[in-house]
Amino acid sequence: MTLEHLSILAAALAVSFGALAPALAEGKAVAAAMDAIARQPDAAPVLSRTLFVGLAMIETMAIYCLVIALLLLYANPFTGGAG
Amino acid sequence: MSNPLESPILFHIGPVPIASVVVETLALNLVLIGSCWLLLRREGLPRTLLIALVETIHEQLAEVLHRDPTPFLPLLGTLFLFVLSANLSAALPGVEPATARLETAAALALVVFGAVHWYGIRVCGFKAYFRHYLEPTPLLLPLHLLAELTRTLSLTLRLFGNMMSHGFVIAVLLSLAALLVPVPFMLLGVLIGVIQAYIFTVLAAVYLAAALGEHGPDHPEPDAPSAPVEPRVPTP
User: Fold this and answer.
1) Is the reported ipTM for this assembly greater than 0.90?
2) How far is B233 from B88, CA to CA, in rounded Å?
3) Which residue among B70, B75, B198, B208 has the highest number of C-beta atoms inside a 10 angstrom radius?
4) pLDDT, tens digit, for every residue of B2-27?
5) Which of the 8 DSSP states describes residue B8?
6) A45 vs B236: CB contact, 8 Å cut-off?
7) Does residue A83 contact residue A73 with C-beta atoms inside 8 Å?
8) B74: cis peptide before it, omega within 30°?
9) Residue of chain A whose alpha carbon sits nearest to that of B158
């Protein structure tokens, strides 16, 4: 197994595990927001705005993993450029 | 599939390479300015819609900033309109959205980074603004500086990652099943574009609100009954 193969495997692992945890976290956040909106429909605008901002924050973690995967595939510093 | 981290160079002006994304951004700016100028010249439905859009942005920003957003409306409103139109230009055939390039997203995030300090110093004063870096204890100064860096980085990567990865997904789908299958995903792309533009603007406003703190003449009384709870957003 060469460094290129390892990089491809690492990219796949980074994206898969990087998607797993933020997906769970986003599910929890949306469920909590739905619960709150169902209890207090008047607060829906404030809740949904905060929800969107919070989701963006959580999603950033997945995006970080995606960027790492892209770096491994397209700009790998250890295999000398394109992997 | 082309490398998403590299920008294709269109042509050179002397020694300066001009990437295609630069031409696209300039064209988009011209279209935005031109259409606004044309629509605002005479009465009619488009003019009313444009004014309604600006008033909606004004309203939303007032809720996030908890003060009169008029001084910040030119910056944040322009950011929203530019990011929105750049994201939605992905729906046009043959156009790659300018925000799906790292450089554009980084430039926009740097504008936000600069504007936050500029408005913070102007509203709070030089000393008061930099004192908040030493609160609650000077020990937290490195963490404050780190937060400044990471939030600019995350603002860049969020916009770039979302727009670029969506283009990637559609490219993969096209290679699997070219006919009709990517269409619902392209519709989803329109939704993602609008949401990302909204999130970018709201986050810029939240950072601005955090830098302005409790200063400023328009800040409502803390005991005011209608004062909504300030969204405390953690910095990733």
Assistant:
1) no
2) 27
3) B208
4) 777 777 788 888 888 888 888 889 99
5) P
6) no
7) yes
8) no
9) A60
